[in-house]
Amino acid sequence: MVRRLSKFLLTNGFKHGKIDKTLFLKSNGTDILVIQIYVNDILFGAINKSLCKYFADLMGGEFEMSMMGELNFFLGLQIKQTEEGIMIHQHKYIKELIKKYKLENAKTNRTLMGVATKLDEDLSGTSIDQTMYRGMIGSLLYLTASRPNISFNVGLCARFQENPKESHVIAVIRIFCYLKGTDDLGLFYPRSDTFELNGFTDADYAGDLVNRKSISGMVQFLGPCLVSWVPRNKTQLHYLQLKLNI
Fold first, then answer.
1. Which tens digit of pLDDT belongs to each residue from 9-32?
2. If DSSP codes are grouped into helix, strand and coil, which group holds residue 238?
3. What three-state secondary structure class fits 90?
4. Torsion of CA 131, 94, 122, 156, to 10 degrees
5. Which of 9, 41, 99, 147 has the fewest Cβ atoms within 10 Å of its own Cβ atom?
6. What is the pTM of this model?
7. What are the contacts of 67-73 at 24+ separation with CB within 8 A?
């Protein structure tokens, strides 16, 4: 099915993304239409809303499908579109995690980790259940899709999944308590006519307590929008969703 869909799009003037082959692009002067395929779901957006109608009609003439309307929830991500820009967050997902790990009555924290906290292997510490710890880490890793500010701390805690100790789970619970008090945060992509790409990086020297390697990080902004991180044009894209009935 994916091969047929790909062939159909290419035949109708779309081009593959240079890196992601499930991404398709089509331009019409200064307007652009963006298509992203995920299994039997298709997300599409355009600067000009008429292009959205064009694509929906084009697909409806070839495939049996259901139009899902404006995109507001996808793969655990909540998307809010306004005249000012697009907000991507995981408020609902955070609420579910807090309930899952029975932290509803826990106090919130204003920071992810104490300044004096130094996590290492803690070989003399009390061991805890690996399955529970790995589940907590996996839940937090998925959350970094909209909360890059927790990436470093989650990555640090993830290093101790083989033999987690009480000190490690305490650090993880603190991350959850921080998220509990900041569940309204997310990524905001404002309308902008700035295309300047800026990158920022930083590193220390031998800062890792386990292997003495340097710790580094990197972020890239396209105008005011965060587009890449590591551990628009003038009018915003308007995203919608449809589902192939296969």
1. 999 999 988 888 889 999 888 889
2. strand
3. coil
4. 110
5. 99
6. 0.79
7. 67/240, 67/242, 68/240, 68/241, 68/242, 68/243, 69/240, 69/241, 70/238, 70/239, 70/240, 70/241, 71/43, 71/45, 71/239, 71/240, 71/241
Local structure of residue 234 (DSSP, 8 states)? S
- Amino acid at position 5, single letter: L
- Contact (Cβ atoms closer than 8 angstroms) between residue 185 and residue 89: yes
Q: Sort 202 into a burial class: Cβ within 10 Å, 0-12 / 13-18 / 19+.
A: exposed
Domain ranges, ordered by start, for the chain: 2-87+232-244, 89-186, 190-230
Residues 239, 86: Cα–Cα separation, whole Å: 10
What would the pLDDT profile of 88-127 be if each residue is shown by its tens digit?
999 999 999 999 999 999 999 999 988 777 888 999 999 9
